[in-house]
Amino acid sequence: MTQHVVIAGGTGEVGRQLLALLAQRPELSVRALVRRPGSLPVASNLEEVTFDFEDAAAYGPLFGPPCDLLLIALGTTRAKAGSTEAFLRVDRDYPLRLISALATTRPGAKVGLVSSVGADRGKGLYLGAKATVEGELATSGLANAIARPSFLRSDRREFRLLEALVNRLIAPLWLALGRAAFAGSPGWWRWAPVHVREVAEALLEASLSLKPGQRRVLEGPDLHPGPVARWGRP
Ligand SMILES: NC(=O)c1ccc[n+]([C@@H]2O[C@H](COP(=O)([O-])OP(=O)(O)OC[C@H]3O[C@@H](n4cnc5c(N)ncnc54)[C@H](OP(=O)(O)O)[C@@H]3O)[C@@H](O)[C@H]2O)c1
């Protein structure tokens, strides 16, 4: 039976990986919410929907058409957004509106959320926003899977200094040392830089297999099955 997926953030680094995986699954019918038309590559099971995230009234009708799974991979940076308020709208308020509208219209649906390592502590602007969204999911009654990656590895076209440093210097060292000496340490892998493809794969599989009311958090070894498994760890 066809399952209906809605994705927000499909043009981002993790989102593009999610869409590539979804494109290989003809049993899934996908609606991707984008800000600008023509943002996404064509796929036979994909419908691109131009969506005004600022329009609070637009969220309810989104889930009139069927939705079994909502994937949220939205995000920005304070610098890119231009202000704290603008940052919070993207990282906190849009996800909150999506979750609330889905819970009202389709309480049996599931959610897959890209959050961040440290969101369970929720300190500061960035992690506070992530913690608020995770908290809303927890009380929504919706089955949900939350990915909490550390630094993301990707081929992002936009230059971000911290990501470039992590990708080129810290990640290779961190991963090599982890495989050699800390293969069995969940704490080590929790903070290890992780490729966007691995996050997308883990989140999509976990989200699709959720049972009603189930909640899962994916972090550390859940997002690094390759290195950890290769070095003999469960
Ligand atoms: N970067 C890291 O190291 C890292 C680490 C841990 C967790 N995370 C989290 O992982 C998630 C995904 O990260 P990512 O690097 O894949 O994100 P990304 O590449 O920056 O993509 C962000 C997505 O959000 C959308 N977006 C941004 N501003 C928007 C706005 N004002 N209105 C509507 N949509 C907007 C973008 O759409 P457009 O294409 O239209 O801009 C894009 O689809 C984020 O929540 C991020 O906080 C990131």
Automatic annotation (TrEMBL):
Coiled coil: none annotated. It comes from the Bacteria. Residues 9-156 form the NAD(P)-binding domain. SUPFAM superfamilies: NAD(P)-binding Rossmann-fold domains. InterPro entries: NAD(P)-bd_dom, NAD(P)-bd_dom_sf. This is NAD(P)H-binding protein.
